[in-house]
């Protein structure tokens, strides 16, 4: 019951918050709830067996029998850390938006917990339709967040977000339904279980888009590529980020983008191995273009939030090329980079939110000399910047190094282009850093009517867990990688005929049971 | 004492110092902060000495103390531990880093006394030493890279230490980004070596290096080492990535002494010496290194002759001297490279600290045209600087003579050498003698041009003691590497201590072992460079002390050539005009024309098509979020029911 509890407890929280009579203790309540959820999610480590590549802690019940649609949760080394990332970031987000969200506080926290359920469900669901429900559900609270608590052009941004993601989702749903029919043909009964999808042998013909596997591959890939986002489908992201309130940006960058990359790993690569292999060049190419393009465009942004949004495009490009080389280095690095990006970009958005609360501007040109006024803020911003540009002993280095190494093994030329991101990343981040923090005091910093105050205890409390994770993950990466190793190895070794067995719950028997036996 | 404990203290002592000063950066005053930081480095120095003594007591072939604290990254075949090694090569480095480091910390206590950010300064300085120790002790290229980027980071922080001055902050950024270009190549170099040899452990790479020299440019050893060397050109300021080092003089002067003269900038040379067996297997790379080294030695020296800022002269001199080290490495004279690295650390740190003492006395004035005759006000600074001057221009028996002579000899005689490389080295030495004498003359000798309101004075003892110690080392530092021709005529025939010490670690170029110059040639080569340097120094003395109007005349006569050199060959302008500005223009065009005007336009058109024209879009854009939610829900229900009804 652990996974169900983890996924659906936030819905209960959302209800309690919606019915809570007293406005003033709402934030404390929400923070407490999110911490309970986080601690509960840590219980997974007690029950999870890192040496097994099977699906663990499985909960599986028939939902709509006629179509083989199931209530199906499970976890393995690939989803484990993303679940923890989600529950880890939520209390931080609540604490970070303590003052910045001042209208409809109740609605905000209710939406946040609903969103948490949707994201956790996406990472844990192993039935296509069940998964799809969570995937789509995650959009609704996000619309609310941007639409109600967002900036001045929020409607424009939400519509753009809407257009992009709906197009992808519809195609994906059609492809899923088609695959359910394929299971009926292949297995006799219709099933929406991802594990049954894995068993399908979908015909593939190289050299044409019109082979079945390639079509399904692209139907899924488009939905996920928009979410990631992969160049050239990224243009919704900068607008959404700029208009979103800080917590919205943090969730968007920290977790929701990872839903896209996670699904590449969970769905695309094992489901369509031949098509993925055949079309890998396209994703490597788009990933590398994304790295360079995102970095170049980030460099010339006048708005610091938009700069970070474009840097996400660049960083997500790294993850994509890491996944599409299909070796241990690339996939491990890609998985690690998902967490890194969640932490460091999440932290950057939080920091930008903190300074925005003080000055109500994100225009780089109006800053300058911030370091002499806000030293503590500067230290945190600097550490996160180092993580973002992958300086060794921060988490970013491990991910970037492994990805580049994986890509190099597959194709040195792509690695040689991707490595320019290492240079450009330092360029756009440090140039921004210099203009905002160094030099003489800018107009916003020297305004005598609005003296700036350095971070207070709450804000420092928000940053410390993030900074601890930055160094912990950079200095002891094995402590994190060990939990994912078995699953990643299993995927890398058996990519062309991937299957996932279910580990009987509670047993520490290394002999995993086949799926039928568990039913 | 237990080796892992010793190693842990050696590494962590500066880090603890960093934490103490870093966490109390508002509270710790100059004496407390400086005291903590200096003691932290001194503890490391003691550990280095103890490790060194242990190393000496071991049999020659077994001199290696390796400690692995934990496994850092383990993915597939890649296994990188937090492993550190003290062997004859790294032992020299840790002694220099912590020894010279302690002196420079001591100097800083007085030099930075009145700075508001003094605790922050010492925190950064300690963090730098910590990273530098990781760099030299790391047992694999990846651990080395940790320190490699770490020292770059500290360099960035210290160059831009006075960050309210935008120019200084920009200099820090320039250093970081230029280094990153090299680091990107370093990463690729690591990948090439790893994919071929299956390890990044330095010891194993040297063992696995091809025993037959690679002829091709695309062989793994050649390509890998060439990429690593590009990394070295960044960190060690060689052509074409040297441009950051002169700007790095924006940092406090002791920083220039520690980071930009004695330690960090030599990391590239050190890396090559570490991996010498792999580099030897790649003669093409070696040739590139030697040529770039020689070219940089000459090129930077020409600029050095025309600069007026005391620190800029020293900066170009450093670039030039680093060129000598690469020249040595490139001709396979790794021992000579290490030798010069060490002596240069002594005399260049001395001269940078001396310039700091001068700048301090002159109330932050750095222009040597406003100095002159400082000898009588600052006798200790002058005398120690004088020793450094004799060392760098290569006068026997000062430290620089022995190391530079060894490099020139090897450039001539090594199987990888060439008389032209030797000639470039001699030319560089002649120019070095000229610009260093010019610097001495304009600063300390001749007539005073000091403005009336400035009253120069000798620096306090905290600053002069490090100068005296380094001055002493600049005299005797070279005596551990006395060549055979000279020791043959000295009483007691002192051995070439350094050569013997390093010998088991170094692969010599094929056939070098039997390739010895006869004594007469060696004396001749030595004589030529010493005599030419002495003449050059005398000419400079004549120009800048006896008849100060001559240089101007010559500069005028040279016209545009002089202008070009004094403007540093306009290389910065070239990089901006040809690379950086076009890149920024390109980025703006990408943003406006691809993102905003192309992709977005297409999506609007598609969006309108999908939803049947613009009118529908307007009704959808009501801003009512419940409505949007309803659309999504309706869509879901519609699709599901379609499926269910079938």
List keywords for this structure.
heterodimer; A: 519 residues; mainly alpha; 23 helices; 3% strand; globular; B: mainly alpha; 3 domains; 27 helices
What does this entry look like structurally?
The complex is a heterodimer of chains A (519) and B (646). Helix content of chain A is 71%, strand content 3%. Chain A is mainly α. A two-stranded antiparallel ribbon of chain A has the order 1-2. In chain A, helix 2 packs antiparallel against helix 3, helix 14 packs across helix 18 and helix 15 (328-359) crosses helix 18. With 646 residues, chain B is mainly alpha-helical. Chain B has three domains: 1-139; 140-566, no CATH class; 578-645, no CATH class. Chain B is 71% helix and 3% strand. Chain B has helices at residues 3-23, 30-57, 88-111, 118-137, 141-159, 166-197, 202-208, 220-235, 244-247, 253-262, 267-274, 276-280, 283-304, 310-330, 334-361, 379-392, 399-413, 419-444, 461-476, 484-487, 497-502, 519-546, 550-558, 560-566, 571-610, 614-620, 625-645, and strands at 65-75, 78-86. In chain B, helix 11 packs antiparallel against helix 15 and helix 14 runs antiparallel to helix 18. The longest helix of chain B has 40 residues, at 571-610. Chain B is globular. The termini of chain B are far apart.
Count of individual domains of chain B: 3
Mean pLDDT across the residues of chain A is: 90
Percent range of helical residues of chain B: over 70%
Biggest sheet strand line-up of chain A: 1-2
> Beta fraction of the residues of chain B?
under 5%
What order do the helices and strands of chain A follow?
Answer: HHEEHHHHHHHHHHHHHHHHHHHHH
Large-scale geometry of chain B: globular
Strand order of the largest sheet of chain B: 1-2
Quaternary: heterodimer
Cα Rg of chain A: 22 Å
Proportion of helical residues of chain A: over 70%
Gyration radius of chain B (Cα, Å) is 28 Å
The largest interface is: A-B, 76 and 67 residues
**Shape of chain A, please?**
globular
Let me know the number of strands of chain A: 2
Task: Give me the number of helical elements of chain B.
Answer: 27
